[in-house]
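To close the chapter, one final illustration. This time we ask the reader to focus less on the individual chains and more on the assembly as a whole: which components sit near each other, and how the overall shape emerges from the parts.
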Amino acid sequence: MSMMWTVKVVSLGVVGLSLSVELLGWLLRRLRTGRTLNEVLFFPSEMACVEHIFTPSSPHSCFCSLPHGIETSFSRFLRHILSATSSLDLCVFAFSNMDLSRAVLALQRRGVTIRVLADKDYAGITGSQIGVLRKAGICARCNVGSVYMHHKFALVDGRLLITGSLNWTLTAVQSNMENVIVTDEPDLVQPFIKEFHRLWMHNDPARFFHSSDQKAAHTTTRTLD
Amino acid sequence: MSMMWTVKVVSLGVVGLSLSVELLGWLLRRLRTGRTLNEVLFFPSEMACVEHIFTPSSPHSCFCSLPHGIETSFSRFLRHILSATSSLDLCVFAFSNMDLSRAVLALQRRGVTIRVLADKDYAGITGSQIGVLRKAGICARCNVGSVYMHHKFALVDGRLLITGSLNWTLTAVQSNMENVIVTDEPDLVQPFIKEFHRLWMHNDPARFFHSSDQKAAHTTTRTLD
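The assembled structure is written out below.
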């Protein structure tokens, strides 16, 4: 009798263990699938109309000559940018793409907090959208010093990282061989959040005004000595 | 007695279940930690001697004026490249960094299969290392057409992806604000492997020689008609 019970206990234990392993594996897979997004986009993108992404309420309102209703690398890219609901932190070398500029302005109108860090040399050239964004009231800072701000990344709601070789220009999107990674993997997102914060602080114009004020005051004091 | 046995069975089941959940969780954490590498490197890198990375057997052999024994973004980057044991697939816009060229040549000497895809305009400029690699017998292809091959990624042993904004130049490493992601996440690595293969095939010079031969033959035939 005791032997039979032992067998029963062991059998039940094995069944319980197997079931729990299955259940836990399934739960972990579900959790993991739900949690991690890892997407790679390659360019040049097919050319297609993106009007329906800006006006989802009237998806058939555009009659331009471009193909309609096609999902492309660029439309995916645009959708990820437009998925922002609270913040968009953008750190770009070159920003002249009008659709991307329109997307950033649309986010601003929705109340999304936007911060833009751009390369100071490129920000000043014809076609750059940095001036357009600033005129619309978006806070944009340029790097200090003679080196290039060569990043091309965006942080959406502090949870999604969009980064790669792609500058935010029409040529990059439509002509060049480029890549973009879209991920919410914390090990990748967090360092970029930290670096954006560091660069944002480092390139705060107030620091320099303050420094030059102090320097001027110091010089004045010395002159008066 | 039967009641007591039931209690015992249930208790044992609960204990077994708890233990198995703990064990499985620990195993999965171990497996996950062991499996996935996600590292982000930011540039400009601190300047430091990297001689010990090339000559690990005599780490104190260099007496140059640069700081020694410091781990920097660039030394991490270099170590990842040099970790290749079977293959290195490289797709770069600009490649003029002498240390990285030395690393690729060192890998070739170790028998690592190397394929380089480079931008044809940049490959021809002074300082580009593409010619140096070719002279050493490394297979390097340039893109066809007028667009930029603007990628900056490397695939190590078909398992590790190294990609970002960083061109393989001295300025990018020592001066610019840049980023590099190092990952073995299959969802990110696999698309890059596929894209490299596509670009490698697309830019095979034999395709064009063959096409022009066929065209020449066709023209000759037509002339002879």
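Chain B touches chain A through 47 residues (CB under 8 Å). The radius of gyration of chain B is 26 Å. With these observations in hand, you are ready for the problems at the end of the chapter.
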